[in-house]
Design brief:
The protein has about 350 residues and is α+β, with helices and mostly antiparallel strands. The protein has eleven helices and 15 strands. Strand 1 and strand 2 form a beta hairpin. Bound molecules: adenosine-5'-diphosphate (ADP) and magnesium ion. This is DNA mismatch repair protein MutL.
């Protein structure tokens, strides 16, 4: 607190940068917002490239429906979204991934942002450049239908935040986890990640979950995968559980290889992750965790749509029942695969 405890009114630029920090925490949060926008635009293919862990440059390119010049100018303004018109839409449930209309604006406030887009049916594209929240340039541009967003120099104008970025390899690990999450839970979309000119992975977008697992984790992991497919579950908030889990001999020493989705939407759901791991019982070695991609279906409106910008966690109405449903589904899959005998746990 300043001397004398005086209260100052913050200037609008400062307020804007603080607000931007709610959305833009690190390179991975930028990547998350841009990939979600690309998915919302109906992309079949999304290519993500990053330099220096994303701190120097992030490029997300999609073949979605694109934006007209007018839509593009609107998109970078505050609280503009094509996805909802009022708070009632939020309560009715949202099918698109983003719905707050602040991501691009926030990113533009704390980076150098360039968006090149061509709307489906338009005869040309538009390139727009924003720096420190101001539109600096709008030009016609040749490109095919879709959008390419380039984000450079994260926090160049907020040195206090730039200082808190982790090492490049840690930031890259966060970026990788995010892109991997979408690639694994959206096998219909071809998603690639390239870092410093080296391809990290590229999925085919052929709709096959195992093929996505193979692209992301490699053959050994893909070949150990067991299908989980359950609609006949005990009572609880989940209608169905669908996905793949690894054989208990294919494990790592981290929980981060369990990827979760709700209704096909990649989200963090620790209830789901923990129940999946728990279902293996004593079959996992000490401190060993499986690979898993698990998508759960819930009735419309049953899940707390997290309105917080970072959408960190999904909560279920009855977490205990949801956990039991998942354990049932995963044990059934392990038993079906001959890995465990249900009713007679080992040891
Ligand atoms: P939100 O996603 O919450 O609507 P954003 O700030 O992320 O807010 O995006 C603002 C708007 O810009 C979106 O509603 C959408 O109309 C448009 N937009 C953003 N990214 C894309 C994209 N990759 N393709 C097409 N339209 C996009
Ligand atoms: Mg968005």
């Amino acid at each position: 607190m300043s001397e004398g405890g005086q209260i100052h009114e913050l200037d609008p630029t400062t307020v804007e940068r603080i607000a931007a920090g709610e959305v833009v925490e690190r390179p991975a949060s930028v990547v998350k917002e841009l990939v979600e926008n690309a998915l919302d635009a109906g992309a079949d293919r999304i290519d993500v490239t990053a330099e220096a862990g994303g701190t120097e440059r992030i490029v997300v390119s999609d073949d979605g429906h694109g934006m007209s010049e007018r839509a593009l100018r609107r998109a970078v303004r505050e609280h503009t979204t094509s996805k909802i018109t009022s708070i009632d839409d939020l309560e009715a449930g949202v099918s698109t991934l983003g719905f707050r209309g602040e991501a691009l604006h926030a990113i533009g406030a704390v980076t150098r942002l360039t968006i090149c887009s061509r709307a489906a049916g338009a005869d040309r594209g538009t390139e727009l450049e924003v720096a420190g929240g101001e539109i600096e340039r709008v030009d016609p541009a040749g490109r095919r239908t879709g959008t390419t967003v380039t984000v450079e120099d994260l926090f160049y104008n907020v040195p206090a935040r730039r200082k808190y970025l982790a090492t490049e390899s840690t930031e890259l690990a966060h970026v990788t986890r995010i892109v991997r999450g979408y690639a694994l839970t959206d096998p219909d979309v071809a998603i690639s990640l390239t870092h410093d000119d080296r391809e990290v992975f590229a999925t085919a977008g052929d709709g096959d979950r195992r093929s996505a697992v193979m692209a992301v984790y490699g053959r050994e992991v893909a070949e150990s995968m067991i299908t989980v497919e359950a609609t006949d579950l005990p009572d609880g908030p989940l209608e169905a559980v669908d996905g793949v889990i690894s054989h208990p001999e294919t494990t790592r020493s981290s929980r981060e290889y369990t990827t979760t989705a709700v209704d096909g939407r990649y989200v963090r759901a620790s209830t789901v992750r923990d129940a999946v791991i728990d279902a293996y019982g004593g079959h996992l070695g000490g401190d060993r965790y499986p690979f898993a991609v698990i998508d759960v279906s819930v009735p419309l409106g049953a899940v707390d749509v997290n309105v917080h910008p970072r959408k960190l966690e999904v909560r279920f109405p009855d977490e205990t029942a949801a956990g039991e449903q998942l354990r049932t589904a995963v044990r059934a899959a392990l038993s079906e695969a001959g890995v465990i005998r249900t009713g007679a746990p080992r040891g």
